[in-house]
Specification:
This protein is α/β, with parallel strands linked by helices. It is about 40% helix and about 20% strand. It has two domains: about 10-250, TIM Barrel (Alpha-Beta Barrel), CATH 3.20.20; about 260-345, Sulfite Reductase Hemoprotein, domain 1. The structure holds iron/sulfur cluster. Keywords: 4Fe-4S, Iron, Iron-sulfur, Isoprene biosynthesis, Metal-binding, Oxidoreductase.
């Protein structure tokens, strides 16, 4: 069961409480290149990203923020490190949230001033606790950024924020070690009702990064922990968003687009299945219908194996059976099978099993 958290607002997007688990990402463009940044934000929003974070490392990035905020279709969070003046400047520019690692902002009074300004302006804050920027005293106490150290840092700052009368914040505790990360988030979840932003930092590239993120984020979500997620990959942020939805979908927490399942293939296969699946995925991209579509590699066992699907293709050599709700409805040639499936998807008027 999902952990009960208090709800906060990042612009018009609600995080925590009974809001759906929110998908976030971060732009990879130079923020000051406004056109590129906005075009990436638009692509990400189309892919399902609901809140976007942009880096603000230089003055020129700060100066670009008003334009970006004004034209972004989703709330914008400014990512601030080391430079308190950029935190104030970003809020002045109208961002909906800021992310700070209080440990690298400087004196406590400065953090308090930022918090008070956020309160005045209705801006949300994410307290970021990262293994790479943990406070010195905690590193000395624990020797390395273990779960207890990350948890203590997160609690320390959360308590201060609340003492200063500020509640519109969430916390992220991110370590690149998956198990320490899970433990630190579990500890925090046991002690507070503050919403958690979860993710595995520096997960890496390709398959390894995706697996690491899916395992770390997936385990936490399964335990009911996590109100918003970001998959961090050394890749195009659109892949991050796609991966985030795949994780949420596999746990039954969110759904986006049509769910396509494909058989694992075996010696009975009669077709270039990856090619067919790719083509169907491309053609169905962006279509919002609660449907499960199966693409299977042979006609022998396929329909039985794909009982859970609403529609599907069972491919033979040079042809395919198009099936609906477990029954074959039409035999089509290899050339026409993707189109035939597409038409059936568009005309499907059943309820769908998703
Ligand atoms: S559908 Fe056919 S090809 Fe695919 S795994 Fe099952 S038996 Fe093998």
């Amino acid at each position: 069961m999902r952990r009960k958290t208090r709800q906060i607002s990042v612009g018009w997007v609600k995080v925590g409480g009974d809001a759906p688990i929110v998908v976030q990402s971060m732009t990879s463009t130079k923020t000051h290149q406004v056109e590129e940044t906005l075009s990436q934000i638009n692509r990400l929003a189309k892919a399902g990203c609901e809140i976007i974070r942009v880096a603000v490392p230089h003055r020129e990035d700060l100066e670009a923020l008003p334009d970006i905020v004004k034209n972004s279709p989703i709330p914008v969070i400014a990512d601030i490190h080391f430079a308190p003046s950029y935190a104030f400047g970003s809020m002045e520019a109208g961002v909906h949230g800021i992310r700070i690692n209080p440990g690298n902002i400087g004196k406590e009074e400065i953090v308090r001033d930022i918090v008070q300004e956020a309160k005045r302006k209705g801006v949300a804050i994410r307290i970021g606790v990262n293994s790479g920027s943990l406070e010195k005293d905690l590193l000395e106490k624990y020797g390395y950024p273990k779960a207890e150290a990350l948890f203590e840092s997160a609690m320390r700052w959360s308590e201060k924020f609340e003492k200063w009368g500020f509640y519109n914040f969430k916390v992220s505790i991110k370590g690149s070690d998956v198990l320490e990360n899970i433990r630190a988030n579990e500890l925090f979840a046991q002690h507070t009702d503050i919403p958690l932003h979860i993710g595995i930092t520096e997960a890496g590239m390709g398959l390894k990064g995706i697996v690491k993120s899916a395992v770390g984020i997936g385990i936490l979500l399964y335990k009911g922990i996590g109100d918003t997620i970001r998959v961090s990959l050394t890749d195009d942020p659109e892949v991050e968003v796609e991966t985030a939805y795949a994780i949420l979908q596999s746990l039954g927490l969110r759904r986006r687009g049509i769910e396509i399942i494909a058989c694992p293939t075996c010696g009975r296969i009669e077709v270039d299945l990856p090619k067919v699946v790719k083509e169907v995925e491309e053609k169905l991209k962006g279509l919002e219908k609660p449907l499960k579509v199966a693409i299977m590699g042979c006609v022998v066992n396929a329909i039985g194996e794909a009982r859970e699907a609403d529609l599907g293709l069972a491919c033979g050599r040079g042809f395919a059976w198009l099936f609906k709700e477990g029954k074959p409805i039409k035999r089509v040639s290899e050339e026409e099978m993707v189109q035939a499936l597409l038409e059936e998807v568009l005309n499907y008027d059943g309820k769908g099993k998703v």
